[in-house]
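Thread: quick sanity check before group meeting

JM: Hey all, I'm pulling together slides for Thursday and realized we never actually wrote out the predicted structure for the chain we discussed last week. Dropping the sequence here so it's in one place. If anyone has concerns about the input, flag it before I start.
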Amino acid sequence: MTRLFNDPAEFAEEMIDGFVASHSRWVRRVSGGVVRNTQSTPGTPALVIGGGSGHYPAFAGLVGQGLAHGAAMGNLFASPSAQQVYNVAKAAGNGGGVLLGYGNYAGDVLHFNQAQERLRAEGIDCRSIAVTDDVSSAPPADRAKRRGIAGDLTVFKVAAAAAEAGRTLDQVTEIATRANHRTRSFGVAFSGCTLPGADHPLFSVPAGRMAVGMGIHGEPGIGETSVPTANGLAELLVAKLLTEIPDDVAPGTASAGRRVVPILNGLGSVKYEELFVVYRRVAQLLAEAGLDIVDPQVGELVTSFDMAGTSLTLFWLDDELENLWKAPADAPAFRRGAVTAAALDPDTAVEPAEVERFIPVASDVSRAGARRILAALGAAKNVVDANAEELGRIDAVAGDGDHGIGMERGVRAAVDAAANAVARGAGAATTLHIAGDAWADKAGGTSGALWGLILRSVGDAFGDNAAADAAAVAAGVAQAAAAVMEFGKAQPGDKTLVDVLVPFRDELARGVSSGLNLDRAWGAAAGTAQRAAEDTARLLPLMGRARPHAERSLGTADAGAVSMALIARAIHNTLSEENKVKENA
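JM (edit): ok, ran it. Output follows.
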């Protein structure tokens, strides 16, 4: 378990501070993560990688000459926000465009794509590569749906080496895509990991058993079997991966086209000595299969806090990929060959100062609406704080258990940002926009992106001049539902917050159109939301990290749906109190 921490909600930020303080030869801190503390060649592409914290040395440990130019670092097991990715990309850029690299998880896809769009809008050529190496997370026919685990390293390493060699962004992107196509991983776990402040692991495995095909965010495995010997484990891992030789790898036993980089990765608490015993047999099996082993790696490269487990990655080489894999690199956690440090120009190391957000002029009635919004957000914060542990427990049944922490960070940031906006005279729309951006930025993850979008969409319906009456609220919720489904691609029945948001929208619209005041219409909709959240227990997840473990989630409601229903009820309580005050006035 994680023993050393202060406030669990601040663990990631404090960890980054300590990492930078101890590795300043390689990296410097920027808003949203870290970038190289050495000079890169002007005009070359920059590789910016990232994901949730809790996986060291991924992702910050891979920043340095010959490897990544920067890493966006999210909260524990949660994707960095679009703002964090954008900030790191801007700080890391060399003028030759940016390639964004990340594991194929819903939150990462949402936030990195948002950042990509923003960079492109500013005239910066930006591409993305979502790593999809985990063979257990989807069948071969659905490779694009697979998640990224330890294979991140192979894709990032060769892409970075290509950029360092002066290849164009088009060439770097093609090389990263080819490396991803030629990388396969498969893992097992003997116990789950425990997040800071938690008193139990995200999942458990009975004594003498192991989970097969688990993820790196505390997701349980897709199956379970008895713990084998070290040789038996090696045979299981190798046999599985050799059923998925990439289609562009030459058949037969000739070495040409049959070269592989094996990576035996420890997930947190399996000792190096144990890994060496397993790798002994891995090497024998690969040789027996007629493969040439190139530069094998054994150790902790992509971890999951204290998870007891290991994964095997096979990276199938061609001549170009082999040269790039072997190219020199000097990062805190990955070094190859000799790299001459290039001192950083102090002028390039200065981040632009943050500019306080402009507050447009608003009407008195809209400023009054902004104060009510702040009260509603405060109620949301209180209910999330009170239920964070339970939300994490629900999320851990088939996911990564970070929903409670992420919601806490997001709603707290939204309340602070809204309070500052209200104090500066903001109207309803501006307050919601600022609060939504703060929520998305601090929470990260899928829920952060979606709640940021919800607040922004409702704000668009309000404006900063008109009153936020019942009709405007209903219109805002309708816009939010449409935006969430368009952005996140989830539909009712997918076991997500959409299963609450859509019936809430419909019931609210019915109540308002029938003449109910906002208090009564919202109350009826909140009741519908609660029932809809409970009903998600009967659904199988079709989106997000829980999808590969769908059967496990039967009987448990979706965490995002539950948190939305809780917030809907908490906001209704503020509306009821406000209505009572008016009636007694």
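AS: nice. The longest strand covers residues 183-191. The chain has three domains: 1-131, 177-328, 364-584.
JM: adding both to the slides.
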